[in-house]
Amino acid sequence: MQNEDNEQRAIITWVIGLAALGAVVTALGLALGASMGWFDSAASRPTAGAQQGAAPTQAATSAASAAPASAAADASAAAAPAAPAAAAAPITLPVLARLYFDTGVSALAADSATALAPIIAAAKAHPTAQVAISGYHDKQGNVDQNAELAKQRALAVRDALASGGIGEGRIELRKPILSEGGADDREARRVEISVQ
Asked: What is the third-level CATH fold of 95-195?
C-alpha cells in the first residue's frame, strides 16, 4: 500500500515538474520572441495553434492543470515580454542639408555633426543612393580664391561623411557654384548636401 502511495506521489511530482518545465520553456520562448520583435505582444496575437483552429491536446491540458500556482506565477513573471521598440519611420529621399561657414574658413562648425546626422542616416538607409555636395561662393573679392575655398569646404563635408560611414565612392563633389547673392550673405558661404 505504501509502495502505491509512493508511486502516485512520484507520478504527480513528475507531472508537476514537466508542467513547470513547460511553463519555463514557454516563458523563455515568449521573452526571446518579444526581444527579437517577432510579434507585437503575446496577448494581442493568437498562438499558432489558435490561428489554425487547433484544440490543445489532452496531455497539455492535464499538465497545465497539474502545475502549481506558484510555478505558473513564476513562469508568467518571466514571460512578461518587454514592450517592443517603436518602429522608426522610413526615410524618404531626397534628404537635404545646408552647412554654413564663417568668412574665410573651411573647417566645419561645432554643430555640423547634428546637421549631417540626417544625411548619414538617409545614406545608410538607402545603400544605393548617391550623396551630392555643392559648395557656394560669391563674386566679391578674388573669384578663384572663393571657388577654392568653396571646394575646401565641400571636401571637409565629404571627409565628415566618410568618417560617418559613407563610402567616398557614393559621394559626388560638384563644381563650386557662384552664388548670385541674396538677403543673407552667409548663403554664399554654404555647402549643400543631398541624398538622392
From this structure: 60s Ribosomal Protein L30; Chain: A; (3.30.1330)
Structural contact between residues 45 and 37, judged by C-beta atoms closer than 8 angstroms: no
Measured CA angle at 67 (ends 16, 38), to 5 deg: 110
pLDDT in tens, 107-132: 999 999 999 999 999 999 999 999 99
Query: How far from each other are the two terminal CA atoms of the chain, in whole angstroms?
Result: 84
Q: Return d(Cα 66, Cα 109) in angstroms, integer.
A: 68
Residue-wise DSSP of 11-44: HHHHHHHHHHHHHHHHHHHHHHHHHTTSSS-TTT
pLDDT at 67 over 50: no
- DSSP 8-class letter at 102: -
